[in-house]
Amino acid sequence: MSSVETPDMAEDLPRAPRQIMLDRAKKHGGFLIGATILLSLILIAIFAPLIAPMDPNAQSLSSRMLPPVWTEGGTWDHLLGTDGNGRDYLSRLIFGARISILIGLGAATIGLFIGVTLGVCAGYFGGWVDHAVSFLLTAQLALPGLLLAMALVFIIGPSVLVVICIIGVLHWTYYLVVTRAATQRIRSLDFVAAAQSAGSTPRQVIWHEIIPNLIPQIIVIFTFELGIAILAEASLSFLGVGIQPPTASWGLMIAEGKQAMFYRPWLVILPGLCLFLTVIGANLLGDGLRDITSPEGRN
Amino acid sequence: MAFLDIQNLSIDIDLPAGKLFAVRDISLKLERGQSLGVVGESGSGKSLTALALMRLLPKAANVQADVMGFDGIDLPSVTDGTFGKDILGARISMIFQEPMTSLNPVYSIGRQLTEASVRTGHFTHSQAKSRALDLLARVGIPEPKLRMQQYPHQLSGGQRQRVMIAMALMLEPEVLIADEPTTALDVTVQAQIMDLLSDLRREMGMAMILITHDLAVVSSNVDKIAVMYGGEIVEQGDAAAVLSQPSHPYTRALLNAIPRLDGDARELQAIPGTVPSLMAPPTACVFAPRCAEAKPVCTQHRPPNVGTIAHMRRCILTDDDIAKMVAAVPAVVAERAQVKDDVVLSASHVTRVFQTRTSLFAAKHEIRAVDNVSLDIHRGETLALVGESGSGKSTLSKILLGLDAPTTGSVLLAGEPVTQMQPAKRAGLVQPIFQDPYSSLNPRRTLAEIIARPLVLRGEKSSADNLKSAREMLDMVRLPARLLYSYPSQLSGGQRQRVAIARALITSPKMLICDEPTSALDVSVQAQILTLLGDLQRNLHLTCVIITHDMAVVHQIADRVAVMLSGQIVELGTAHDVFGSPSNSYTKSLLAAAPQFKQDTVLA
User: Fold this and answer.
1) What is the pLDDT of residue A8?
2) What does the alpha-carbon distance between residue A225 and residue B150 come to, in Å, rounded to a whole number?
3) Residues B111 and B166 in one domain
4) Shortest Cα distance, chain A CAs vs residue B352, angstroms
5) One domain for residues B69 and B195
6) Is the ipTM of this complex over 0.95?
């Protein structure tokens, strides 16, 4: 006969982790703003053909360089004016969102797979694997990223797919550094030893025990890399080795507008503003996610 | 007015979830040179009380007290600046629990010792230095001159705690508060530090407040005892009176929950439930939900303070009621599990050598973690593996589990070499239980997933069957089935340890290897877990290896004891023999160092 009864606990359990995160998300201003910006941008990108008032590539030489509607000489036909070829600037910006979002998501995802795979392997197996991955990381960090990207695009030939792949392949270092450190910490915890004694293979340990615990960090870096990749595309396009005309891309629009920048400043300001908002949104979202998923008691 | 006089101290803390009433109406009196032990489980508010006295509470905490007097000074009226200069460290000083983190790693020992006293203007630099040298010698640090220039990482845990003590004594404080000063240290070091503190107290005529969860530590070191529960002092009085006639049901329950070294192993009386956190001021007795003597009135009114200053309690029970309770003496553990002759696990000449090198081209450095260990473990027995940190017991347990391979020697599990066994088969024979219940469960999985995982890995049954088994296991470790879909962060430490046991038992292994299964838990929860393990072992005919440094736990549950020292087994024998007539000098020192109750402490 034992004297231990079922511990009588208070009827209501502490709240589940997911509930706590949801509550925090609702109260986090930065997260809400960032999420709203990115979400509306994604919606705009998806429904671009329905939203855009005109065909972004339709040229009209009679209405070139029209200013936005709120300035002198603007017309309601072209809300944000037109560019040097008479194309509707609003429509081009809306279609430009497609390229930015596509490249941001695509490149950040490619980087995620490379970085997380290397990081988890280095952290979990340690030893020579870790040494090799660390060497790769040092080599990558020593390379001038933009220059390398330009060279690669130049050699392979520019297209949306190539730009996505090259930006992705060059942006995995943050994933690696963070997941490697986190994996090293997690693998020394007792639940990993418990899984090993229950007969888990390394693959099962990594998938079932380690990866789920990395998800918050991965999401945060993903949003961060999203912003960086969008900027990288803009830089490449601005320099002429990214997206090729006549496709609408914010970086390319800045490049095309730069000759007329001093007397038609909106040609540069408007796409610049779009880039700024997108990257700010991605960073706010990432910071918010970091706060929301951080363990109890921080902040 | 007493030297240190606290009356009706209350502390509440603003948390996001509401106000936590952490400490309520605490009254303490301490005379010059007296020592007071504050005892309680985690969450009882004992550390907060000390921090309130030191003004070290977080900003979210509010402190109220009718009286907070120290040597005639009304403490609340002293400004923070004056308090920091004249009282903190100079007249009231404190030692913390964790010596590994309480020294700053980038400053030398000497600088840390002298800095505060020089800055507050109590000493000149050379005065401070000579005082520090004297103190280091006094607290038992060899070669104090050399040590002054060293950094914390060059010192062992025990030495760091000695440095902390020296630092606290720099300005000859009149009150020393020690918050669990020995919990993080090895047993033999614990005893030395406690002796040192007692000697220093007598020498310097200091008053001391010793905060601990271990009644046995208190029993031989203090004049007065205050037992705290749920933010209140439930019993207080002279140490001898409290320990020989414990009169609050909680104190009695605590004493019955602690494994003891003297006499035969008694059945531990676990206290059901957990310590409450009060989010509203209590209107009833805080201990009533867990009290075996609770009456209806206990849940309706606050209990009164009964008794004299020499021994008071906060309880409705009369002296007659308590006299009756004394009669119920817990039974000696009658039935041990049946030990069979057949050997479940046999280790022969196991040696594990780790090779480390500081850099790629530096010479290899060898560490013999386990050195030529041979061990047979019989079916149904409980073998305790005892030793201090660094003795190789955890490495040995990893080898026995098959998670690490010995450098030389072999381990046979049910007649087969464990290193060559299929993981699934090995998992069905031997399972671990770990020390820290907070890191042994994956925080991202529900209990159902965690418990059923070993079965999922085997892939023999459908997921519905696995879930059914998980439910049965939860029932077996006496957790309610409604917890099945909750996450580990929603459970208390004791509940998590039960989940870990459930996971270990779901494959019906023959053997459990438990690495300090209760050392991270409170005593009342420790009793629950030890009793549960004992019951399960008897019912399921399990073989257990328990790794621990707590000799009282060993005495409580072990059939045989193996004592490890620097990788070798220095003594191996039945628990009776090892405790009765230890042959090895190291075993003797371990036994002598283990905190024990004085003989007159009642066997309640």
Assistant:
1) 41
2) 45
3) yes
4) 19
5) yes
6) no
